[in-house]
Amino acid sequence: MHVHILGICGSFMGGIAAIAKSQGHTVTGSDQNVYPPMSTQLESIGIILTEGFDEAQFDPVPDVVIIGNAMSRGNAAVEYVLNRNIPYISGPQWLLENVLQDRWVIGISGTHGKTTTSSMVAWLLEYAGLQPGFLIGGVPQNFGMSARLGESPFFVIEADEYDSAFFDKRSKFVHYHPRTLVINNLEFDHADIFADLAAIQTQFHHLVRTVPGTGLILSPYSNQAINDTLAKGCWSEQQFSGRNWQFELIKSDGSAFKVLHNNQVVGEVNWDLLGLHNVENGLMAIAAAHHAGVTINDAISGLAQFKNVKRRLEVRGSVNDITVYDDFAHHPTAITLTLQGLREKVGKQRIFAVLEPRSNTMKMGHHQQELVASWQQADHTLLLEPKGLSWSLSKLAATSASPATCFDDVSQIVNYLKQHAASGDKILIMSNGGFDNIHQRLLDALTEKAAHNDD
What global pTM score does this model have? Predict the structure, then answer.
């Protein structure tokens, strides 16, 4: 079968492309911006890519077109598919019908931590010899790929609440039918498609309705938004972190902790990750893997060998003992937790936080006060003010209790840090986009400065 994918270079759609190719389908696709690493990853497995949405890409006519949720009416390729009556389907629905229908699906949902926790669960199953399939919105470094079909009944998926397609406004995750469901946390996000938290809770309630009675739902015991959602109706077994599963920190930065199951210490995790949020993610991963048949001891041992997903407090380089980190954080809660984890690790060493408020929710002006509070653990916060905001990031930064400075472009931020960063400093760059390649540009600038000083 010839499968053509519109919007193929997103992490989710690119994962679907890789899985379809591994099933023996002929796979082609297009996107507005075709660039590495996704373009090279797809081309390396024999997928032909087209840049743009010209109708020439439909020669020969595919058997089915998978339409990504970034595609909308008015797009030339979308209009061509509709006008020619070419069969089309959303990515989540295709995944259900062609991959998930007969699998033990482990769905990882929540506002934060989906990618990391999904990667942990996939790795714990792999470590235990279960060879799971997975589709994750990032690249787990234990695997070096974002998706694979797998060799067993188990399939781990990052269960995203974002909508499925322009013709299917249900959340992606209602298509996945998980047997094991993790709900890590629940906050308001995605203001471009959800009016309020209640609208998101409705979609999570729909997800809960798809979990079989013999399945398991894992969630934090004390999260009111999740508890209110489950109170709408739950027909599956429930287990809770903070009740059935607990942890005790051994090190305050989260790099070592005890695992408790039903109030009994069952082992200790010693790993490379930092932060309370990652301890909570790890505990959920142990619980989810255990439901799929992994022993607690194997899960704990596996976490010690887990390598975090790229762009999760990832060290991009160090020059003259100035360390540059890259992190995907873009919601105030994630920013807070990431900074807390780094602060616990580095103590009183100076932290520069560099933030691009890039998400649609941020740009619409939501979470403004929470955003200011989120960066207070940093010694100095540098902000890139996106063009066309309906509100002033500069005025918001002026209300910060800790130093915060706005810039118009990335070059200004790089130059500022080149001048002011000193040995021992930590520079934490946070964005859910490419941030105009600021990480490498900064490392190059710091290297240039170091070479000049040596002359």
Answer: 0.80
